[in-house]
């Protein structure tokens, strides 16, 4: 089976700046794939490379097995939902959606029928005659989606499409997008800097940092088994422990990470494989569903501990700032970290045909 | 700081300034309908429409109007093409010499008209080209380009580049994108730029004096009239006409480009 | 929806236009060159070529006896610029350009200030158009209107008489340096016409620079205890200097190169522009005319260097 999109040692340089640095990814057909990273990490450039707005400086990009180098955007079976939606202001909603069909020479009747179908798919029946300026942000976003989907692409690229929406709408759109992707069975490549968004929607996530990929994995593995310090700190909250303390706690000088919710306050007898450490509780933040504690260890490092407020009676109430506490966690919860991603092994160019 | 209300002194200075700007223009309109036929005397003696028909019966006036219109049309057309090409080339990509090119476009209106006029004249002479309508058009087109360029580049900068990418992404090639996306978004900016370029060309006199040879555009006709006091009423009517042809486009351009960008910038004449 | 997403074949009809499109996509530099070549050819060949040619002619020799130009290179024309007579022309023009710039700034400032700070919405649009229209209105007609205004028995005289200002005018006209026998043949008259014609070019840049002043700055000044007058002198005026400087580029260089207004209004005596016009026309001394065009270019270059320090280019 060929991959939907395959990057092989792709680099993109802007002058001296390596926006994308020797990236290799295989994105499966029908997968919901997210590219996650801070701004400037190269994720959007990767998306633009797939769409054809940028050309790789080195390496090869294959889309469904076909080499994409030199193919202009209009000859790629890929459509994009833009961050600013990029709706054509001089056209009404229906003409916007039908544009892709029009430039491909689809007849008018067919165009209108398919545009209206696409609009109903995003729950915007009856909005065809409106101009984009007459729509709310969420509605524009749906039009942008319909405009891309009406062309029946095999790969849909989404460039932070939810960034401009408010929280409630964003959460609603997240689940709708996910549902749509399952329904259509096409590949979604979703760029975001929001880790919650990436984790909740994706089949797999690539974490970008400084133009390189730190880790490609399922959301669960990203969280539970971050490969690098960067991933551990960018995805969720982590206590990264290194140096002498790491040696003392794990018996190994390599850095490790421990999630705040995997640390408990020591009560009763420790299990044999538990790690225990003590310090002073110096801050307590009540966050509703959980309470977060900052524990200053005797070695000087601060550990963040998170306890779910799952009991009706608030169990955290008897902890007070300034109190001396002992915390413990299961040895298995410690994840060894690497500072940089391991070099990906050379992949032989894939001969699809 | 100043309270929300302006002081009386400031109000008088501001509104008085506006009156100062418009009073001479008003005078032109008043005199065009003056019954008296010889002098500049004030106040006017009476109201008549007679001079308008007299002026439009004069072959030399009609001749000059026709010439000026022809020149303004062709010069505007050339300016539209060159100005649009230049703005499309300069608005986004950075390349070596970009600043030099934009400076070169502005130079013809930034340098005094006598320099442009004399330079063109001496070049035409050196090449053995007889001054006439063609040479006037070349001169006008040269300084009209920047007007179109300013309007179009402002619109291009205001238009999100992702519109062009979206169009290509949806399957439109460069030509289709130009036709369906760029042109409709540029249309009113082109019209505004074209109108201003037309007004500028229709009125230009300094460069034209050098490049006109024996041709008489309307402004040159007017200038020659000033040494002929007998003809004052006809001159007044033509002056009013020229005034309107040059003032109305600014209104049109204003309404076409309203919303964020400056109409023509201060790069006037 | 249950549609099957087959995906259209990426290669469709390959019209010549699409071939061309693809070519431009793959060769962005070719695309850029195609856009740039026509304007570059026009400006490079026609405009810059002419300018350099003109400069070159400044080195040619003009024979006073045969009234002909020979391509023998000489610096005599540029030297002749410093003749007392020619120097007079330059000084006269320069003085006028400076005076006009200063006066325009003084007249323009209240208009621009009122526009920027006390008008909103429709009134602002009205002011904007009311300044733009006279700016674009025909230059020659505006000059003509002033000959009507200033003529004997014309509007200006009528007003002067009816307001009882005749003695004041007489006194002004008898003043050395600015006077003349009548308004239309005096330096004062010429100066007024210049100020009128270039005034809008001064108003708009000042207005733009005042418009950019954040209101919070003025609040801050007031909050720190400044009186309105102090705020104006210490905050508003200094921050509008770039706008004034930008506007003065126009008033200065436009006055410097003009030769129509000096011909229509004011006392006899050449301006740089009329000198150039006369040299190439009536006298036929193209090399001297060419040398003379260098004067406004140099003066403007010097002026630009000065106002650049005042931040004029940021206000353009």
From TrEMBL, chain A:
Signal sequence coordinates: none
Keyword terms, alphabetized: ATP-binding, Nucleotide-binding, Transport
InterPro entries attached to this UniProt entry: AAA+_ATPase, ABC_SmlMolc_Importer, ABC_transporter-like_ATP-bd, ABC_transporter-like_CS, Mo/tungstate-bd_C_term_dom, P-loop_NTPase, Transp-assoc_OB_typ2
Gene3D superfamilies named among the record's database cross-references: 2.40.50.100, P-loop containing nucleotide triphosphate hydrolases
ABC transporter domain: residues covered: 5-235
PROSITE patterns per the UniProt record, alphabetical: ABC_TRANSPORTER_1, ABC_TRANSPORTER_2
A Pfam family assignment: TOBE_2
GO molecular function terms noted in the UniProt entry: ATP binding
Name the record gives this protein: ABC transporter ATP-binding protein
Organism expressing this protein natively: Pseudomonas petrae
Lineage, opening ranks: Bacteria, Pseudomonadati, Pseudomonadota, Gammaproteobacteria, Pseudomonadales
Automatic annotation (TrEMBL), chain B:
Alphabetized InterPro entries for the sequence: Bact_Polyamine_Transport (IPR051789), MetI-like (IPR000515), MetI-like_sf (IPR035906)
UniProt key word Transmembrane helix: yes
UniProtKB keywords: Cell membrane, Membrane, Transmembrane, Transmembrane helix, Transport
Segments passing through the bilayer: 12-33, 67-91, 103-127, 133-152, 189-212, 232-256
Stretches assigned to the ABC transmembrane type-1 domain: 65-253
Topology of the protein relative to the lipid bilayer: Multi-pass membrane protein
Subcellular location: Cell membrane
A Pfam family the protein falls into: BPD_transp_1
Xref: SUPFAM superfamilies: MetI-like
Gene3D superfamilies on file: MetI-like (1.10.3720.10)
The family this protein is said to belong to: Belongs to the binding-protein-dependent transport system permease family. CysTW subfamily.
Name this protein carries in UniProt: ABC transporter permease
Naturally occurring in which organism (per UniProt): Pseudomonas petrae
């Amino acid at each position: 089976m060929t991959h939907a999109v395959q990057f092989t040692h792709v680099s993109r340089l802007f002058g001296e700046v390596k926006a994308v640095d020797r990236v290799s990814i295989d994105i499966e057909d029908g997968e919901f794939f997210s590219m996650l990273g801070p701004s400037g990490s190269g994720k959007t450039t990767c998306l633009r490379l797939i769409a054809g707005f940028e050309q790789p400086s080195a390496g090869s990009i294959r889309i469904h097995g076909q080499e994409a180098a030199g193919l202009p955007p209009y000859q790629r079976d890929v459509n994009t939902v833009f961050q600013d939606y990029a709706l054509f202001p001089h056209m009404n909603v229906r003409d916007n959606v039908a544009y892709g069909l029009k430039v491909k020479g689809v007849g008018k009747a067919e165009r209108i029928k398919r545009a209206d179908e696409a609009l109903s798919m995003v729950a915007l029946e009856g909005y065809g005659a409106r101009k984009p300026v007459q729509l709310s942000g969420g509605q524009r976003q749906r039009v942008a989606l319909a405009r891309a989907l009406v062309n029946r692409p095999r790969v849909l690229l989404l460039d932070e499409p939810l960034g401009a929406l408010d929280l409630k709408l964003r959460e609603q759109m997240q689940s709708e997008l996910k549902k749509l992707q399952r329904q259509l069975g096409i590949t979604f490549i979703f760029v975001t800097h929001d880790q919650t968004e990436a984790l909740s929607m994706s089949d797999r996530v690539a974490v970008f940092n400084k133009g390189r990929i730190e880790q490609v994995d399922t959301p669960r593995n990203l969280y539970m088994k971050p490969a690098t310090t960067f991933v551990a700190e960018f995805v969720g909250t982590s206590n990264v422990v290194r140096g002498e303390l790491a040696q003392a706690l794990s018996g190994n000088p390599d850095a490790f990470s421990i999630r705040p919710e995997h640390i408990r306050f020591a009560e009763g007898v420790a299990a044999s494989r538990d790690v225990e450490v003590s310090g002073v509780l110096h801050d307590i933040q009540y966050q509703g569903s959980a309470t977060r504690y900052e524990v200053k260890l005797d070695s000087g490092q601060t550990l963040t501990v998170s306890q779910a407020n799952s009991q009706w009676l608030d169990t955290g109430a008897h902890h007070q700032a300034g109190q001396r506490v002992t915390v413990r966690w299961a040895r298995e919860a410690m994840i060894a970290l690497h500072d940089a991603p391991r070099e990906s092994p050379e992949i032989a160019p894939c001969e699809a045909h | 700081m100043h309270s929300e209300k302006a002081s009386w002194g400031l109000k008088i200075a501001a509104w008085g300034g506006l009156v100062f700007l418009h009073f001479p223009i008003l005078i032109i309109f008043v005199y065009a309908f003056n019954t008296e036929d010889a002098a500049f005397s004030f106040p006017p003696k009476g109201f008549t429409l007679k001079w308008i028909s007299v002026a439009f019966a004069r072959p030399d006036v009609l001749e000059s109007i026709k010439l000026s219109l022809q020149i303004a049309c062709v010069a505007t057309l050339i300016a539209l093409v060159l100005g649009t090409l230049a703005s499309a080339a300069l608005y986004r990509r950075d390349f070596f010499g970009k600043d030099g090119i934009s400076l070169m476009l502005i130079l013809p209106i930034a340098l005094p008209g006598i320099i442009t006029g004399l330079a063109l004249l001496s070049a035409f002479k050196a090449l053995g080209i007889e001054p006439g309508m063609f040479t006037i058009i070349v001169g006008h087109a040269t300084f009209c380009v920047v007007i179109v360029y300013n309007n179009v580049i402002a619109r291009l900068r205001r238009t999100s580049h992702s519109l062009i990418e979206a169009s290509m992404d949806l399957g439109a090639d460069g030509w289709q994108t130009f036709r369906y996306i760029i042109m409709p978004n540029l249309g009113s900016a082109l019209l505004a730029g074209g109108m201003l370029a037309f007004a500028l060309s229709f009125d230009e006199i300094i460069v034209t004096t050098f490049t006109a040879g024996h041709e008489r555009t309307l402004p040159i006709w007017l200038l020659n009239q000033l040494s002929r006091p007998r003809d004052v009423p006809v001159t007044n009517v033509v002056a009013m006409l020229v005034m309107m042809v040059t003032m109305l486009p600014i209104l049109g351009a204003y309404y076409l480009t309203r919303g964020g960008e400056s109409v023509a910038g201060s790069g006037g004449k | 929806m249950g549609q099957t997403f087959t995906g259209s074949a990426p290669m469709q009809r390959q019209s010549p236009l699409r071939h061309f499109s693809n070519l431009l996509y793959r060769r962005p530099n070719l695309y850029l060159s195609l856009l740039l070549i026509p304007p570059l050819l026009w400006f490079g060949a026609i405009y810059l070529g002419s300018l350099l040619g003109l400069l070159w002619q400044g080195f040619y020799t003009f024979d006073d006896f045969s009234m002909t130009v020979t391509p023998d290179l000489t610096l005599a024309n540029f030297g002749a610029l410093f003749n007392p007579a020619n120097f007079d022309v330059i000084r006269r023009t320069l003085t006028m350009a400076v005076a006009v710039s200063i006066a325009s700034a003084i007249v323009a400032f209240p208009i621009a200030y009122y526009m920027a700070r006390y008008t909103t919405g429709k009134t602002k649009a009205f002011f904007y158009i009311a300044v733009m229209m006279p700016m674009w209105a025909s230059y020659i007609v505006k000059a003509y209107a002033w000959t009507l205004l200033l003529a004997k028995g014309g509007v200006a005289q009528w007003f002067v008489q009816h307001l009882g200002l005749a003695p004041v005018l007489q006194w002004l006209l008898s003043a050395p340096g600015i006077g003349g026998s009548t308004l239309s043949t005096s330096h004062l008259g010429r100066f007024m016409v210049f100020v009128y014609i270039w005034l809008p070019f001064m108003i708009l840049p000042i207005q733009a620079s005042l418009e950019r002043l954040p209101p919070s700055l003025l609040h801050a000044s007031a909050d720190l205890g400044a009186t309105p007058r102090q705020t104006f002198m210490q905050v508003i005026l200094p921050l509008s200097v770039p706008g004034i400087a930008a506007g003065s580029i126009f008033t200065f260089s436009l006055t410097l190169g003009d030769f129509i207004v000096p011909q229509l209004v004011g006392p006899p005596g050449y301006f740089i522009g009329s000198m150039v016009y006369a040299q190439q026309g009536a006298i036929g001394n193209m090399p001297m005319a060419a040398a003379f065009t260098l004067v406004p270019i140099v003066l403007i270059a010097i002026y630009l260097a000065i106002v650049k320090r005042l931040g004029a280019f940021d206000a353009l």
